[in-house]
What does this fold into?
Amino acid sequence: MIVPLSSNPLRVAIVGAGPGGLAATIQLSRLPYVELSVFDQARELREVGAGISLNENTWRLLQDLGAADKLEQFATRGVQGKLLVEHRNGRTGELLARRFHNGDPNKPPAVRIERYKLQNALLSQVPPGVVQLSKKLVGIQEQADGVTLEFADGKKQGPFDLVVGADGIRSVVRQYAFPEHKLTYTGKVAYRVLIPQEKVAHLLPDLPHASCFWHTRDTHIYTNVLDNGLFEIATRAVESEEHGNKVSWGQVVPKEQVVPHYQKYCPLLRDVIDAPDSWLEFAMFGGPRLDSVTRNGRIVLVGDASHPLSGAFGSGAAFAFEDAYTLKSVIDFSRKRGRDLDYALEHFDSVRAPRYKELYGVLDANVSNVEDIKAQNPDINDDEFVVQTTERNWQQAEGRGFIYGYNVSLLMQEAQIAQVWAEHEAAEDARVGILELHNVVAPVAA
It folds into this structure.
């Protein structure tokens, strides 16, 4: 059933209340004709993990969401020469690359904060009583009058005209909408922790006071001295598939499980890894790019559910916010023209699909770079391998403005929406024309 957007109201369910789900809640609640229901499986809303990066595009969207003011106290603007990020050899400590703040007071800062602070800032803009907790989604049913959601408590909700899957990388909504899409274990786990700086006070003089990636051939360690007396550590380690498939998201593990992975790092980093008494463990899963993130004009995926990756250059929140902004814009654009929901979601795909195709292209290029380096010098030593991969992958990625400088609000201005949609329809007409011509010519050729 195609839902006409000219009818009132538009019944929308959002599954998941992480950054993407909360952003979608804020955006869609601004549309007066939307009846909104939000569900999350957690008993209480709390973020699991360590820090989260807020880059230029993230700040721009936080301002639109009304949440930026809550976070400004944790940011420093216009400090020219302030160190932002370093890359170092994890075995030797050698500096490989670094980047500084450009000093522009009008440019959004790049900062790192605890995840719960971002969540609280978003929640401050969510209408009270909208989010329903302890709602673990176990089933989805599509009927003529809409989509019904079934939860683990035995209750059903619906029907809804639109279901927004914002339920993360292990999305139940995606599993229903695209049952052939499968996640696979990447062979790595992440260990993350926030500890008081006092735990590493004797090490701080030798540690960069910025985001720092310490690289080896197969793993890396991330450190950051945060402004609020905390010290962040995030790592990657190679683990067997059997181990990875047993790891739950955010499982507490003792230091004895973590420390052995990093014995080849320099003494400074070994002392850093030894400081926490326990860590949070996350198995890293990923999946192929989806050509479309919508189904039947009724279901749409946003955030990690729409691009199941184990990392997105510290811009996962920004990508989710872009999705939410785009979704609100295309629904409103379509409604004003009396078009149906299927039209709106097709347009959503036409805007977001190229964005994620480009992101996956960068990751594919990274893999290709590594293979090229190995092919060109099969006997390359570990230190030179780190130098070359850092130069070709990390520096290239950080220099790509499409990640950090992307401005979806400009793209979603009404004139731009119309232009993008016209281009999409023209391309589709051309494709259909070619197919029809092929169908006419093919019998003659035979």
Observations:
- DSSP finds 13 helices and 19 strands in the chain.
- The radius of gyration is 23 Å.
